[in-house]
Amino acid sequence: MTHSIIVHTTLNSQEIEFLCEPRQSLLEVLREGLGLTGAKQACNNGNCGACSVILDGVLVNACLVLAVEVEGKSITTIEGIGGPGGLHPLQEEFLKQAALQCGICTPGFIVAAKVLLDQNSRPSEIEVRRWLAGNLCRCTGYDKIVRAVLAAAERMAETPLEVQA
Amino acid sequence: MAVVYVPSLLRSLTGGLAQVEVAAGSVRELVDALEERYPGMGVRLCEDGRLRPTFSVAVDGVVSLKRLNQKLEPDSEVHFLPVISGG
Amino acid sequence: MSDKQTPIKDFQVIGTSPLRPDAVDKVTGRALFGDDVRLPGMLYGVVLRSPHSHARILSIDTRKAEALPGVFGAVTAADLPSFTDAGAYQRYQAENALANQKALYYGHPVAAVAAINPHIAQEALGLIDVTYEILPVILDVRQAMAEDAPILLDDLRTHEAGSRSDHSSNVASHEQTSCGDLELGFSQAAFIVEREFHTSTVHQGYIEPQNATAQAHEDGQITIWCSTQGAFGVRDQVAEILRVPVSHIRVIPMEIGGGFGGKNNVYLEPLAALLSRKCAHRPVKMIMGYDEVLAATGPTSASYIKVKIGAAADGRLIAAQAVLCYAAGAYPGSPVTSGMDCIFAPYKIPHVQIDGYDVVVNKPRTASYRAPGGTNANFAGEVVIDELCEKLGMDPLEFRLLNGVQTGDRKADGMPLPVIGFHEVIQAAQQTPQLSAPLEGPYRGRGVACGYWGNYGGTSSASASVNADGAISLVEGSVDLGSGRVAIAMQLAEAMELPYQDIQTVVGDTATVGYTEGTYGSRATFATGWAVYELAQSLKGQLCERAALLWDVEPDQVGYGKGAFTNRVSAESMSLRALASHMDETGGPVVASASVHPSKEGPAFGVHIADVEVDPETGKVSVLRYTAVQDVGKAIHPIYVEGQIQGGVAQGIGWGMNEEYVYDEQGRLLNASLLDYRLPTSLDLPMIETVLVEVPNPGHPYGVRGVGEMPIVPPPAALANAIYRAVGVRMQILPMSPPRILEALWEKERN
To answer: Chain C closest CA to A67's CA: distance in Å?
Structure first.
């Protein structure tokens, strides 16, 4: 019989606590326990990026993080991107540039791209491609995704956003 | 007369002819007429009164959903084709 | 169904690129895919799979697993109905879902278990005892075809145009297409090229694994939520495997995270339903690990292909011969006949013979993969054509103009081609910026390949109702793989002469919409688009009658155009929106439905141009630039048509350069993960330039031609031809991965 642990963390700017077993990944807890299904279980072993989340500002695959590891830390998921004001410029550009087809990889790409733009507000095409190489897309061939990220970067450089958590 | 394009592997039954002309008002009548002229054709094309699932039949350039029940014009062109897939 | 085609005119909605109905939910993560389903009391199911690729199953004991606390039940083939009276095809379907007596591939399902959480379910798998008698393994197509090969399926006989062989075989069927006189043709050829090719097993690589949640109700009804390209197909197959009436099953397709043909067949659905029955009728959810997806769903055929083509001195093709041997996996059904349809399709050739063999091997049963069978065949054919062009000293595109098929020309099987745009595509390719851009530097080369895909019509249904606010609610039967839903909605808007924003679209399930075949064969925009066109005619007719009632005139005295009704007697007009508010006093709701099976789908042709650079030390090939030119018919939503082409090209590049299944000698899949089954990443691809050539298909009211499958067909050949020009080696094996490029370079050096 496994025992459960209470974990305290900040999730999308809210302080919360949740119950989990030590063997559960952050991905499993987000999806099963916390009702946040935006991060996807795809390869579930760190090779596709569909479960990308931000942990203390660092881009991680939630399937490779144990839920207990987030004690005292801060997590942002796709659900925390875009605020009360509406969609994040990345989300808007993904729509405008048709940078999604089936959409299963889209939350992961948007989270990953956000971390890139937080660190490098004017990436080149090759920098975008290198950063996103950990996110797999099978539908688009990446062309429109890269264009969307570059377009969002340009927009954000012109009208800086308030800092997102 | 309907023109029938004989499937390659059935031309041994038609003495090597790749196309034959047959008078028929429907694909079913056509198959019966083929069997009469070229014994053995019928059982290759059909089983249990239906066109075998490994064949589709195209009439005048269009694959027919009605199969044996498809009506023919006096000068229709009929092809028996292997079924092909899509994904 | 109306046979009238609307003359192509200035469209109001078609040709624009509006926002998809599902787009906002997808960029926010809100959209519900199959694994997002949660039901009260839900259990989690997992599958025990054979570790052997060919073995007799002597016994299965699930008692210890079922006794584990948290486990609610286990199923094996013993829980399936009997199939002794069924045909071979139905038996194979059931056996592929759960192995009965024999495991035929590494990963073949042997049992399944459901528990309160996936961890306990996994633990339970380790408690299931299975004893196997290991049998000799066959992985290679040619080995399987040998006289003395071990037989996989004792009851399999070779089918040949309606006849059956009398002895068992691994060759499930032999098909042949021929015209003219091959011997005569080759005797007249001035140049002949003959080569053999091998392609490896590759997978569709959809990012979302197969998943299904099933609720088996006490009264015998079954509800299934799943990731599928076709809810009705799932219903039919589950009905077949569980031997229950189709009407007792409801299948609700969730948003799908990629399919590409690999999600037409069922895998988990019947297992989840069986488990739900066994586990106190609690709903059971199952999702595959990605290792299971690769090992045990439906990759496409590995193949061995021989091609021989002859041309006259003036460059005209005279004779062509091909033998295609496709590996079907454990049960018959490779796409070899589609490969046969593709292989010489772009060319006028008087003397042709194509033989195709469907062969079983100890690999998972193949499923469709985007233009199934076409890429393998096209690789072989187009590399030989390229070599012929070189021998002839002809420009590859001029060669295609000389020999390329046109409207009305007959294919090798004798079928006349309807309106096609191959010559338009070649001419557009000749004008592309890439073709005239200089490509300088050592180890760089530019290659060209063309391709064909026939597309498919099929049955589609939709229904719609007019709302009191004037908007139309549409329920359409085609699962949306990423662009169909919006293209179908746009066609309804166009047909109703309303703004796109006035159409509210949902994808139906098997209980809420009429029978619709899956989203495959590049058919959804074509066929379901036609269904909505038909129901729009009915809606407009009914609304005209309502307006006539209000105006007290005859219905034929009411005109309709651009969202407004006109009283031809008094010249009054009324918007559809205004009329809609009067539905309740003119006869009640205005609804319509349509079910169509159009069959004049137009074939698609394309020309691809690839620039590559080969690193002679590592064998790595970089794709520097890529242009795909394609006849897309009338592009309903041009940006998504571009997206379809780019996606197909990306998969074709992966197929050509990196992707392959690596098996050990026992038939175990060694690279069953996305780490080692190497899909292209953003770093592997350039921007993919697309040129949309629009030759409308007169077989559709709006000129729609299927677009989605064609683009995966030419890339391996285009890359192979570019590699040849870069480093002088003709690749005859896929993928053209670095070790193989190096071997080819070293072989060339030795000679």
So the answer is: 15
